Amino acid sequence: MSSSRLGMDSPARPAPAPAALLYYVAFSQLLGLAVVATTGTWLGVYRGGIAWESALQFNVHPLCMIIGLVFLQGDALLVYRVFRNEAKRTTKVLHGLLHVFAFVIALVGLVAVFDFHRKKGYADLYSLHSWCGILVFVLFFVQWLMGFSFFLFPGASFSLRSRYRPQHLFLGGAIFLLSVGTALLGLKEALLFELGTKYSKFEPEGVLANVLGLLLAAFGAVVLYILTRADWKRPLQAEEQALSMDFKTLTEGDSPSSQ
Amino acid sequence: MSSSRLGMDSPARPAPAPAALLYYVAFSQLLGLAVVATTGTWLGVYRGGIAWESALQFNVHPLCMIIGLVFLQGDALLVYRVFRNEAKRTTKVLHGLLHVFAFVIALVGLVAVFDFHRKKGYADLYSLHSWCGILVFVLFFVQWLMGFSFFLFPGASFSLRSRYRPQHLFLGGAIFLLSVGTALLGLKEALLFELGTKYSKFEPEGVLANVLGLLLAAFGAVVLYILTRADWKRPLQAEEQALSMDFKTLTEGDSPSSQ
Fold it and tell me: Which terminal Cβ of chain A has fewer Cβ within 10 Å, N or C?
């Protein structure tokens, strides 16, 4: 059974994007910007702002991770829903590039925290947050390399691509959710280290950080909702449809998801 | 377009469950049992075990939440994949009952922590973990009531059920993931409160708890993978198929997901 018959692509129709999809995408962007702004407010108002050459270097870490691994990664997943009628290749390149930006920004955030730990003499990689973070980095990198090799680098056959595609989609969503979860763990860690027992006094910093946590979870949920709505998937363009039909005719019996 | 043409149900075939599905379900159960066993080990070896009438009352909270809102809730979501050829109604009742068990066990865990806080004079509901936990409880309860009213209580029309079904599926998955995330936040909180700076010395308790965190994330990921595999959805039984066909013929133009 082909992946399109399994409902992974809707049949070709050059229709405009569903109105509800546009509202949900706008809402996701509002939430994403609120997450970044709240992170900036938290670091600016309660943590002294951001700098590389001082104790403020730590603050580079949460800001970069939120921008790179939450906001940009989330948006990178949404490009196929937003750019519905562009050529598939253009959308793919945008998807891959947004992930490169996300990775570079996250790398700056990673260097910041390791450098800060080194200067302070703190231990590395002992916490659940750090373990999850390293897991996210490794999975993100492997996923990008695999995605590039299968979908952008010419050479992978149509059959190979169709076989790998569902795994790529699932792992992409899972890495994004793990990124959001890791951010929540890091936020909690930063709060408990700094506020200690004051956290239970409903200090303004604690309440703001809790709101940031809920915004993070809401952004993750809305992105996931948009990605999983079957009727919001990107429709096949006319030429992709034709290609897919040709392929089906040629390889009947060798289709990717028959088991 | 009907939900079955969107790939939400596979066409009727009385085939046995795919072999790979069985392996994944077995793996998910191994992970779930490992999560419960590791939680028990952590509480038993490092936290003095469990009792209601003492300071150990707190320990009832993580154990009940892990068993109810993680393991049982996860398994409740899997019943439609496991019981593929039973009558739909039987599977529905099992799905609803497992959620009732999960809710009752989680309620004991909730009472334990509030009672413990009251006896100790601790503040309630100040942390991100507690906010997420209350959100999980409210959503879980609303989702159960809605599910019962639409799918088990006779009266909801076929058309209403088909309209609500995708929302129920998405919200169910989201509540489960939020439960796993909330458990991770609580685990982190319990570690930082108790271990403090010893956490960074790779104390055995910290390492065990980190492993528990990874097991929790892995259980969530495997359950999510099983739920999202399009070709592992429960096939329509012959009589459900016939009913659905009849309905389609009767209500052409009033189908649930046309927009």
Answer: C
Q: Which of A77, A63, A258, A253 is nearest to A170 (CA)?
A: A77
pLDDT tens, A198-242?
A: 999 999 999 999 999 999 999 999 999 999 999 999 988 776 776
The full 3-state SS of A47-107, as one line of letters, equals CCCCCCCCCCHHHHHHHHHHHHHHHHHHHHHHHHHHCCCCCHHHHHHHHHHHHHHHHHHHH
CB contact under 8 A, A184 and B185: yes
Backbone torsion region of residue A219, taken as left when φ is above 0, otherwise alpha when ψ lies between -120 and 50, otherwise beta: alpha
CATH number, domain at B204?
1.20.120.1770
CB-based contact (8 Å) between A188 and chain B? Answer: yes
Does residue A134 form part of some domain?
yes
Range of the structural domain that residue A137 is part of: 36-236
Asked if the model's pLDDT at residue A176 lies above 90, the reply is yes
Residues 121 to 180 of B: which have CB under 8 A from any A CB? 122-123, 126-129, 131-132, 135, 166, 170, 174, 177-178, 180
- Determine the Cα–Cα distance for residues A136 and A184; give it in Å rounded to an integer: 14
C-alpha separations of A122 from A131, A247, B199, B210 in Å: 16, 57, 12, 18
Does the beta-carbon distance from A188 to B7 stay under 8 Å? no
- Put simply, the answer to whether A199 touches B225 (Cβ < 8 Å) is no
Model confidence at A8, pLDDT cuts 50, 70, 90, reads: very low
Write b or e for each residue in B203-216: b if 16 or more Cβ atoms lie within 10 A of its Cβ, otherwise e.
eebbebbbebbbbb
Per-residue tokens: A179: 């990124």
Q: Where are the alpha helices (DSSP H) in A121-259?
A: 128-147, 158-195, 204-228, 238-250
Chain B neighbors of A225, CB-CB under 8 A: 170, 174
Q: Which amino acid is at B50?
A: I
pLDDT at A2: 41
Instruction: Locate the chain B residue with the closest alpha carbon to A233.
Output: B6
Residue B146 within a domain: yes
> pLDDT over 90 for what percent of chain B?
79
The domain total for chain A is 1
Q: Is A245 inside any structural domain?
A: no
Instruction: Report ipTM for this prediction.
Output: 0.89
Query: What mean pLDDT, rounded, does chain B reach?
Result: 89
In a domain, A194, yes or no: yes
Helix, strand, coil distribution of chain B in percent, nearest 5: 75, 0, 25
